[in-house]
């Protein structure tokens, strides 16, 4: 019996897959939990339409991510002021949260701090590389310049 999975089912397939199952497995396990529907002409057609809609949505999201990466890369250097002691050592560290806040001020870009990675801990004055992973495929590099306040 052919069914279309509505959700991921371990050892069977991912959501949207058309798989062959035993009638009892479908009737007793998949159908009551709304994990699958029968693969009829109408449901197969709806599946194709849903896949096309998801593909278009993914393409749009990718395009937005690319534009955001270009915007961040065009920034070049992000300047942050911090209190420093003798020898240029900071009285704390510049965190990803502070970098995200400065990006929001400068570019009006709202980023999650977990997307930002720095080459090293920023605990002194100077220039440091930073990377923003917007999606697994799209990322942007920029410099963080820490100056005394």
Please give a structural write-up:
The mean pLDDT is 92. Strand 8 (126-133) and strand 9 (139-148) form a beta hairpin. The strands form 3 sheets. The chain has a 4-stranded mixed beta sheet. The protein has a 3-stranded antiparallel beta sheet with strand order 2-1-3, covered by helices on one side. A two-stranded antiparallel ribbon has the order 5-7. The chain is α+β, with helices and mostly antiparallel strands. The protein has 3 helices and 9 strands. It folds into 2 domains: 2-60, Ribosomal protein L9, N-terminal domain (Ribosomal Protein L9, domain 1); 64-148, Ribosomal protein L9, C-terminal domain (Ribosomal Protein L9, domain 2).
Which tags fit this structure?
four-stranded mixed beta sheet, Ribosomal Protein L9, domain 1, single chain, Ribosomal Protein L9, domain 2, three-stranded antiparallel beta sheet, 149 residues, 37% helix, alpha+beta
